[in-house]
TrEMBL record:
It comes from Variovorax soli. This is 3-hydroxyisobutyrate dehydrogenase. Keywords: Branched-chain amino acid catabolism, NAD, Oxidoreductase. It comes from the Bacteria. InterPro entries: 3-OH-isobutyrate_DH-rel_CS, 6-PGluconate_DH-like_C_sf, 6PGD_dom2, 6PGDH_NADP-bd, HIBADH, HIBADH-like_NADP-bd, HIBADH-related, NAD(P)-bd_dom_sf. Coiled coil: none annotated. Pathway: Amino-acid degradation; L-valine degradation. SUPFAM superfamilies: 6-phosphogluconate dehydrogenase C-terminal domain-like (SSF48179), NAD(P)-binding Rossmann-fold domains (SSF51735). Residues 3-160 form the 6-phosphogluconate dehydrogenase NADP-binding domain. It is an enzyme of class 1 (oxidoreductase). Belongs to the HIBADH-related family. One of its GO terms (molecular function) is 3-hydroxyisobutyrate dehydrogenase activity.
């Protein structure tokens, strides 16, 4: 049996850890939220009271934390953490390029194999075990971790060396953030033009407007059964996390001199949305801001 230390069991981490448990692995779960730890125990995981006990004796450590600061604070800053020999540390969080480089460099200096393996597919993909993993790191670490990632995802892509997974993720989420604003603007306009929104959805989802933000994650309730819009925008991918990702894309675009005008506009809209107190709502709730104007 493989022992996996899992750190950060929120909207994404919990269903991912549940799938690892279902695959027969022993899960040592750590989260700062006691309610989350109770839930983990209910799923047959071993709830831990510290990062160090979650890591102790683990063949793999998987983290799913909010940001780069969390990843560095939890797994890198403490040089007393006793990772097992041959342990592979897989960070699945979406984090900035600089923190990702520090994560790889510091742990590899301590002789630990590391992968950055951010995901796409949302909470639905995490629950269904159909996530796409974009992985950065050595061939050896990737080969070792692949069966673990396959228990949580459908598409496991080795993007390149350390950091390549995060680079791919930032670019992907720039598309998602921009396209969610585009879909929200179009649905809002369609309503104001007196269109039946179901009919407009049927047309756009089979026309050139078709995209994931429309057909898999519609911001308008009643069009796609699994969308967070049907649950009052609770759960899902928080607007504050989308803002974080769009800011990461802006930073990366500036440092590589790449034009990213729509990315910057989407970031400004999400910043206004978060300032209005909607940061914890799913990012598709951006449509509320447009509808209200
Ligand atoms: P979340 O806020 O629901 O979960 C984060 C979890 O980390 C929480 O349970 C929190 O208690 C825990 N945590 C925070 N600090 C901690 C610490 N110091 N030690 C241990 N646990 C700690 O966030 P999420 O939606 O699950 O997202 C997690 C990561 O996945 C983010 O980087 C996000 O960008 C990325 N992501 C999210 C989605 C999505 O649809 N939600 C999709 C793809 C990627």
């Amino acid at each position: 049996m493989t022992t996996i230390g899992f750190i950060g069991l929120g909207n994404m981490g919990m269903p991912m850890a549940v799938n690892l448990r279902k695959a027969g692995h022993e899960i040592k779960a750590f989260d700062t939220s006691p309610a989350v730890l109770d839930q983990a125990a209910g799923h047959g995981m071993k709830a831990q009271t510290s990062v160090s006990s979650a890591i102790e004796g683990a063949h793999f450590v998987v983290s799913m934390l909010p940001s780069g600061k969390h990843v560095l604070d939890v797994m890198v800053a403490n040089d007393k953490l006793a990772y097992a020999q041959d342990c592979v540390v897989i960070d699945c969080s979406t984090i900035d390029i600089a923190s990702c480089a520090t994560f790889h460099r510091t742990l590899s200096q301590r002789g630990i194999r590391t992968l950055d393996a951010p995901v796409s597919g949302g909470v639905g993909g995490a629950a269904a075990g159909t996530l796409t993993f974009m992985v950065g790191g050595s061939d050896e670490a990737f080969a070792q971790a692949r069966p673990i990632l396959q228990a949580m995802g459908k598409n496991i892509i080795h993007a390149g060396d350390a950091g390549a997974g995060q680079a791919a993720k930032i670019c992907n989420n720039m598309i998602t953030g921009i396209s969610m604003v585009a879909v929200s603007e179009a649905l809002n306009l369609a309503r104001r033009l007196g269109l039946d929104l179901q009919k407009f959805f049927d047309i756009a989802s089979t026309s050139s407007g078709q995209c994931w933000s429309l057909t898999s994650y519609s911001p308008e309730p009643g069009l796609v059964a699994t969308s967070p819009s049907n649950r009052g925008y609770e759960g899902g991918f928080a607007s504050e996390l989308m803002l974080k990702d769009l800011r990461l894309a802006e930073q990366a675009a500036m440092s590589s001199n790449a034009p990213a005008l729509l990315g910057a506009a989407a970031a400004s809209l999400y910043a206004m949305h978060c300032q209005a107190g909607k940061g914890r709502l799913d990012f598709s709730s951006i449509i509320q801001m447009l509808n209200a104007r």
